[in-house]
């Protein structure tokens, strides 16, 4: 718990509006990706087909889209940012892995790696000063 407090203090001392805008864009992107998966479930099924042989394909179908949609909204508002990012990490690791197991799509791989790196950054950085986390913390 002390590590989280020290990370929050560091992030609040070094917060900038462009970093918060990047967090918001990341959340909107993840939300839109979740909507895309819901509207085109066959595309999602085709994406996870290389890892479906290990089992859990139906679980993945029902986890990825809602996690992106709900997590994206939470990241946009900065509400429980680290928890929302933690829910995205297994999906993003899988997105990078799928590119190596199935057909290699360099655009998809680059996009997955960039989003993964941004999520790792915000897992450490947190929501920042312009977030619901900070607002609720100041209300105590």
Distinctive features:
single chain; mainly alpha; 7 helices; 140 residues
Q: Which helices and strands occur, and which strands form pairs?
A:
Layout: H1 2-13, H2 17-39, H3 41-52, H4 57-77, H5 81-101, H6 106-125, H7 132-138
Helix pairs in contact: 2-3, 2-4, 4-5, 5-6
Report on this structure:
- The protein has about 140 residues and is mainly α.
- It has one domain.
- Helices cover about 85% and strands about 0% of the residues.
- Helix 2 crosses helix 3 and helix 5 packs antiparallel against helix 6.
- The protein starts with a helix and ends with a helix.
Summarize it.
The protein is mainly α and 140 residues long. Helices cover 83% and strands 0% of the residues. The model has no long low-confidence stretch (mean pLDDT 82).
Helix-strand category: mainly alpha
Percentage of residues in helical conformation: over 70%
Unreliable spans are none
Instruction: Summarize the helix and strand pattern as letters.
Output: HHHHHHH
How many domains in all?
1
Radius of gyration: 16 Å
- Main beta sheet strand tally, sense and closure: none
Mean pLDDT score: 82
Strand content: under 5%
Number of strands: 0
Q: Can you count the helices? A: 7
Any idea what the shape is? elongated
How far from one another are the termini? Answer: 17 Å
């Amino acid at each position: 718990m002390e590590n989280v407090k020290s990370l929050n203090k560091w992030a609040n001392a070094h917060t900038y509006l462009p970093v918060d805008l990047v967090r918001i864009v990341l959340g909107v992107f993840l939300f839109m990706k979740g909507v895309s998966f819901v509207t085109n479930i066959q595309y999602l099924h085709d994406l996870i087909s290389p890892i479906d042989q290990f089992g859990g394909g139906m679980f993945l179908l029902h986890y990825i889209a809602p996690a992106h949609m709900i997590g994206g909204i939470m990241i946009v508002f900065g509400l429980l940012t680290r928890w929302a990012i933690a829910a995205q990490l297994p999906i993003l690791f899988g997105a990078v892995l799928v590119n190596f197991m199935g057909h290699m799509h360099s655009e998809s791989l680059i996009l997955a790696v960039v989003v993964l790196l941004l999520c790792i950054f915000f897992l450490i950085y947190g929501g920042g000063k312009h977030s619901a986390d900070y607002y609720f913390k100041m209300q105590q």
